[in-house]
Amino acid sequence: MKTVYVNAAFFTMNKKNQIFENGMMIVENQSIVYIGQHDPNKLIDIDQVVDLGGKWVLPGLVNTHSHVVMTLLRGSGDDMLLKPWLETKIWPMEKQFTTEIASTSAQLGILEMLKTGTTTFSDMFNPNGIDSDEVIHQISKTGIRGAFSQTIFSSETRMEQKANFKEAERFTKKYKMFAKGRLTTMVAPHSPYACNPETLIECVRIAEENDVGIHIHVSETEGEILEIENRYDVRPIEHLRQLGIFERPTVIAHGVFLNDEERAMLNQYGVRVAHNPISNLKLGSGIADIVSLLETGVKVGIATDSVASNNNFDMFEEIRTAALLQKGIYKDPTKFPVQLALSLATRIGAQAIGMEYTGSLEVNKKADFITINPYNKEHLQPISQAYSHLLYAARGNDVCDVYIDGKEVVKDGICLTIDEERVIAEANELKGTLSS
Amino acid sequence: MKTVYVNAAFFTMNKKNQIFENGMMIVENQSIVYIGQHDPNKLIDIDQVVDLGGKWVLPGLVNTHSHVVMTLLRGSGDDMLLKPWLETKIWPMEKQFTTEIASTSAQLGILEMLKTGTTTFSDMFNPNGIDSDEVIHQISKTGIRGAFSQTIFSSETRMEQKANFKEAERFTKKYKMFAKGRLTTMVAPHSPYACNPETLIECVRIAEENDVGIHIHVSETEGEILEIENRYDVRPIEHLRQLGIFERPTVIAHGVFLNDEERAMLNQYGVRVAHNPISNLKLGSGIADIVSLLETGVKVGIATDSVASNNNFDMFEEIRTAALLQKGIYKDPTKFPVQLALSLATRIGAQAIGMEYTGSLEVNKKADFITINPYNKEHLQPISQAYSHLLYAARGNDVCDVYIDGKEVVKDGICLTIDEERVIAEANELKGTLSS
C-alpha cells in the first residue's frame, strides 16, 4: 500500500528545518519513502492519493516524560507543598487504583495526547495492584507509539523487593519489542531518593541483559540534592554515575538543578534530559537552565509530566512555555528560538528517548505526522507567519488529523481508536469511587 | 426583557468565590438582578428561559492591557532583541498602517478575544495615519466592552505635539462615554521614556479635565530604569509621581522592575498594575514579582499585551502562566492559588481598569459572562475538579457562549458580531500589502 499526501505545507523538522510549501509525501509500509516538492512523476504506482487541502503538516510531537495512568488525578490537590500533596492526596488515591482505573486513566490521557498531536510518549507507571499486561494491551489499541515503563521503588522487605525485580524483568522482556515495535519499555527506577543503591544496580543489570534504556527522575528539587548529599556525600548525578546507571542509554526526567560539572558529565555519558517546564513551575521546583544544557551538547526533549502537576498534555503549550522561560531567565529574546524549540518537541525529543526512527518527516522515518488547518483559526493569522504560530500561538486542539505508522488515529479532531464518550463517562464514574 | 439562565454551575468570582452548582441567574436591562441557587419562585414574570445544559458559567475575562490594532503583526519578528525588533520590524510596518488595516487588525484581534472568553479589554493604539473614529466605530460593532485609548508620544516638533494633544483631547471627550457606556477611553502617554515631562503633564491635564484615568507602560525593562535614572536622577515610578500622574486613577502596564519602596508608593496612590507575564518573558524583559505586589495591597490585572509579543489573546493561558511563574520563582506551589489567579482575570482585573461594574456574577453587575461545556472535553476530566481545570487545564477555545451586556456575541464557538471568514480573508490580503 503506497499513499501519497499532496497539497500541504510540510514542516519536515529535519536538520535543515526544511519546509516544502506545496509539498508531497509518500508513505509505504508505515514509513516515509518520499518527502519533497510536489512531483507529478512520483504519482505512478500510487494506491491512494490524499489531498490535505492546504493544511500544515508536522511530525507528530514527542512527549518524553509522562504518567498517563495518573490522568484520573488531574486537579486533585493543586497549590500544595510536595510532601503533603504526595502523602495526603496522590499516594492514598494511587493505592486505591484497580486495573480498570489504570486502563481508563491511561486511555483518557492518551486520548488527550493523540488529539493534541502527540504521537510518541515515554511513560512511567506504578504497577502496584494492577495488571500491567491489561493496561499495556489497552494502550496498544490506541495506536500510540512509545515506551511504557514500570516504576521501580525500593521496598521495605527483601521478599517484596525480589518480587518487584522479578516482575520488572518479566515486563521488560515481554514488552521491549511489542506491537510490532510500536511499543517498547525501559527500566525505570523512580529516583535516587526512592531507590537504594542495591535497587539501582539491579536496574542496570535488567536493562543491560535486555538491552533497553533507563528512565529515571533526577535532580528535580533542591531538597533532593540535599538529601542525596546527606546520604551519600555526593550529588545525585555523581551518585548515579558511580552506580553504573549511565553505562546504559539513560534519559533523566527534570534535571532542574545541575551545575557545569554535572552538565559536562551528562554530555560525556550521552545522558538525555526530559525537560518538564510546567510541572517544575507548578510544584515550585524551579526553572531548569536548558540553554546551558544544550550548549554543553546534551540532547533535551520536552515533556508534560503527569496531569496531576501540569494539568494537561498539550505539548504546544509545553514547548511554548519552555521557550518563554529561557528567554525570561536569560533576559534575552534571542535564546531558544522557534526552530530550536520545535525541534526539541520532535526530532531531538525522539532522539532523547532513543527513537530516532520518528520525530521528523524524512525518508525511512516512521510515518508519524499531524495536520493543522489554519484557514479558519483567527489566532493563526496572518497565515504567512506559520513557523512562528506553531510555537507561539498554536494550541493542542488546533490539530486536525493524526497519523502513526501511516495509520490515521485522529481524523478532523475525532479519535478513531478510542471511544471518547465511553472513556470520559467511565473516567468520571471511576473517579467517584476514589476517596481522597 | 427579563431572561433567566438555568441548569448550570455558576462560578461567581465574587469575594467569597461562591459557586452555585445547580444555580440560576436572572438578567434584566443588561444587568444581573439575581444570582444564586435555583429558585422556582423566581420564574414568575420571566420573558425567556435559557437552559444552559449543565455548562460552567464564569464572568467574562478581563484583559487589562492590549494593542489590538497590531494584531496583523502577529509573528512578524520573534526571537529578536527589543531595539532591532521595534526599529526594523514593528515600527516600519506600523508606519504603513491605513485605517482599513487598523480596523481589520482590531476586528481580527477582538474576534479572537471574544471567542476565547474575553469580554472586557483595555487597549492602547497608535493613531498616526489612521481615522480613529472609524476604528472605534468598527470596535463598537463587535459588542466588546472596554477602554480604547490613543497612545501619546512626545513629538519632534512643537506643532506636531500641539496637534497630537488636540486630537487626544477631542478623542477623550468624544469616547469617554461611548456606545451607552460600553466603550470608554483613558489618556495613554506611551511611557516615561517616550514622553517628556511636558507631555506627561499635559496628559494629566487632559485626564483631569475629562475625568478619565491614565494608562501607561512603566518599568518594563531594566534598560528603561537606567535610562530614566540617567535622564532624571530618579526611577520611573518616582518620576511619574513627581509629575502628578498618580493624582489620576492610573493603571501601569508591566511593572516588572519594582522595589519595595515603589510597591508601597503604588499602593499609597491606588495605582493598579496590568501584569503581562508572557510578553515579559518573550521580549526577555523578566518576571514581575506579583506576589509581593499583591501583598503590598496593589490591585493587579492580567493582560496579554499585543500578539506581536505573545502571540495570542488566550487569557486562560495568560492566567495559568502568571500563576505558574510565581510558584516557580518563589519555589513554593502554595503561592498564587487557583481562586486568586482567576479573580485577577475577572473581578480584580475589572477593578484594576476602573470597571468595577463587570468582572463577577453579582447582582447589579453587567451581564458579561461566558460558558464552557466540559462534558465532551477530555482535558477537563474528571469533571468534579472544575475549579482546578479552569486555571490549570482549560484553553481559550473551550469557551462555548459569550454574553456582554446580556447580549450573546458568541454562540457555540461562532462569533455573531464579526464575519469571521471575511475578517480572516481581509487580514491576509492586507498583510500582503505590508513590506517588512
TrEMBL record, chains A, B:
Keywords: Hydrolase, Metal-binding, Zinc
Amidohydrolase-related domain ranges (all copies): 56-409
Annotated binding of substrate, by residue: E94, H190, E220, D305
Record's catalysed reaction(s): S-adenosyl-L-homocysteine + H2O + H(+) = S-inosyl-L-homocysteine + NH4(+); S-methyl-5'-thioadenosine + H2O + H(+) = S-methyl-5'-thioinosine + NH4(+)
GO molecular function per UniProt: 5'-methylthioadenosine deaminase activity; metal ion binding; S-adenosylhomocysteine deaminase activity
Cofactor: Zn(2+)
Binding site for Zn(2+): H65, H67, H217, D305
Stored InterPro entries: Amidohydro-rel (IPR006680), Deaminase_MtaD/DadD (IPR023512), Metal-dep_hydrolase_composite (IPR011059), Metal_Hydrolase (IPR032466), MTA/SAH_deaminase (IPR050287)
Textual note on the cofactor: Binds 1 zinc ion per subunit.
Pfam families per record: Amidohydro_1
Protein task: Catalyzes the deamination of 5-methylthioadenosine and S-adenosyl-L-homocysteine into 5-methylthioinosine and S-inosyl-L-homocysteine, respectively. Is also able to deaminate adenosine.
Family from the record: Belongs to the metallo-dependent hydrolases superfamily. MTA/SAH deaminase family.
The name this protein goes by in its record: 5-methylthioadenosine/S-adenosylhomocysteine deaminase
